[in-house]
């Protein structure tokens, strides 16, 4: 419990910096690009997140888990897992980059309804390997549970990304905001790589060499899970915006996006704590009783924090809108209540869902990601038709209620 509170404190510092940087950049983007610009940046960010998720799939949860399990026995024990993960990134780079680059025009039309921004798709593709390297390094540090180092790297990332965004938005307006969204993850990856060059575990002998089929098979399961996450939710978000644009227009979609951004910002305190402490902790456990005990003890700390933040955001939503955006976004105040209820339910469901990742339950995780991403999109289409932009929040809330029921009723099966 003390360790969780300590990690939550340090990750809260990082998240506070992220929130401050996010608020400043959101304000600047709102001033220079308006509600429609916010929505367009959201579209590109989902593409970036989706492609980065694909490229990061071999070096995310799998590296954290097997580093956490083996690092006490020395780097040599971790090396076989690291080699498989790095080889996966190389193979995916060869597959993904040429394909997305070739279809950049079509991707631009799909995102924005215009081929004008195909060059942004090309820029995004070029930065993907650097993004993956950055994720690889932070996963190793997370797996070793070096929380302070992890937080310091996170702060460096925030400073780089926010500086790039502010400079480009102020100098180039909407185009600058889109360009910043495309390149900032790659720039962060380069900075983290420079840091890693001095680490004792970042030596060629640990990363290149023979790999065995058994480990390839296990890592492949994690790749499949990460690919499912990388594709399903970003795709769902892109289609949700397309649904909203079709029914209520770009400007109102921008109101919804602004509320979503605020949710992302405050929930980052919790999600970062879960990925930094909770996931490595679950990776060390082997029985359902141990896992259930960890879920309960974590929930006692996390859920009151989430409830407190959600209530605070709701009470001060007008202040948040004024500080983060402009008067043009005032109508967004009516979109908070249901969104915040959905946020609380989402975090509670994630506490029960994380064992799917820690146990490598591919057969449970992948179908659930696909099914609930599709259901979110369909529910959004259904509710937006009847309730306008508020329907997207209703769909979000209902979908996570269904997901919570799913993980609670099935946890014994995937946490074995």
Structure description:
The protein is mainly alpha-helical and 416 residues long. It has one domain. The protein has 13 helices and no strands. Helix 1 (2-56) packs parallel to helix 6. The longest helix has 71 residues, at 213-283. The relative contact order is 0.13. The model has no long low-confidence stretch (mean pLDDT 84). The chain crosses the membrane at residues 88-105, 117-138, 150-170, 176-197, 218-240, 260-279, 299-316, 336-357, 364-384, 390-411. InterPro entries: Poly_Biosynth_Transport (IPR050833), WzxE (IPR044550). It is found in: Cell membrane.
In a nutshell, what does this entry contain?
This protein is mainly α. Helices cover 87% and strands 0% of the residues. It has one domain (2-414).
Structural class: mainly alpha
- Biggest sheet descriptor: none
Helix amount: over 70%
Order of helices and strands: HHHHHHHHHHHHH
Q: What is the alpha-carbon Rg in Å?
A: 21 Å
Distance between the termini: 23 Å
| Backbone shape | globular
Strand composition percent: under 5%
Count of helical stretches: 13
Count of individual domains: 1
β-strand number: 0
Low-pLDDT segments, ≥5 res: none
Average pLDDT: 84
């Amino acid at each position: 419990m003390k360790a969780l509170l300590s990690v939550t404190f340090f990750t809260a510092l990082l998240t506070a910096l992220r929130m401050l940087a996010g608020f400043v950049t959101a304000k600047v983007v709102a001033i220079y690009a308006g509600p429609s610009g916010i929505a367009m940046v959201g579209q590109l960010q989902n593409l970036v997140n989706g492609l980065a998720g694909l490229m990061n799939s071999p070096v995310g949860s799998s590296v954290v888990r097997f580093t956490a399990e083996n690092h006490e026995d020395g780097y040599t024990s971790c090396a076989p897992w690291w080699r498989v993960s790095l080889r996966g990134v190389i193979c995916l780079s060869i597959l993904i980059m040429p394909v997305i680059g070739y279809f950049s025009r079509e991707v631009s039309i799909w995102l924005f309804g215009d081929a004008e921004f195909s060059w942004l798709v090309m820029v995004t593709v070029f930065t993907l390997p650097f993004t993956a390297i950055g994720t690889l390094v932070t996963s190793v540090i997370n797996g070793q549970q070096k929380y302070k180092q992890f937080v310091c790297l996170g702060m460096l990332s925030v400073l780089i990304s926010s500086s790039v965004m502010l400079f480009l938005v102020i100098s180039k307006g909407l185009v600058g905001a889109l360009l910043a969204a495309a390149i900032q993850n790659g720039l962060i990856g380069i900075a983290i790589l420079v840091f890693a060059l001095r680490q004792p575990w970042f030596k060629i002998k640990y990363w290149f060499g023979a790999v065995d089929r058994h480990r390839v098979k296990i890592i492949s399961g994690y790749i499949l899970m990460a690919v499912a996450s990388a594709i399903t939710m970003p795709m769902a978000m892109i289609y949700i915006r397309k649904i909203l644009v079709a029914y209520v227009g770009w400007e109102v979609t921008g109101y919804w996006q602004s509320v979503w951004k605020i949710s992302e910002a405050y929930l980052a305190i919790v999600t970062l704590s879960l990925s930094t402490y909770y996931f490595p902790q679950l990776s060390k456990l082997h029985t359902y009783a141990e896992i259930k005990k960890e879920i309960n003890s974590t929930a006692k700390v996390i859920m009151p924090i989430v409830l407190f933040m959600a209530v605070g955001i709701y009470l001060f939503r007008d202040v948040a809108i004024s500080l983060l955006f402009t008067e043009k976004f005032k109508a967004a105040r009516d979109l908070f209540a249901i969104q915040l209820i959905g946020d609380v339910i989402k975090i509670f469901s994630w506490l029960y869902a994380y064992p799917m990742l820690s146990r490598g339950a591919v057969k449970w995780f992948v179908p659930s990601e696909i099914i609930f991403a599709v259901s979110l999109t369909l529910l959004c289409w259904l509710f937006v038709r009847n309730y306008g932009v508020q329907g997207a929040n209703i769909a979000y809330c209902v979908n996570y209620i269904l997901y919570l029921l799913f993980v609670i009723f099935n946890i014994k099966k995937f946490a074995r």
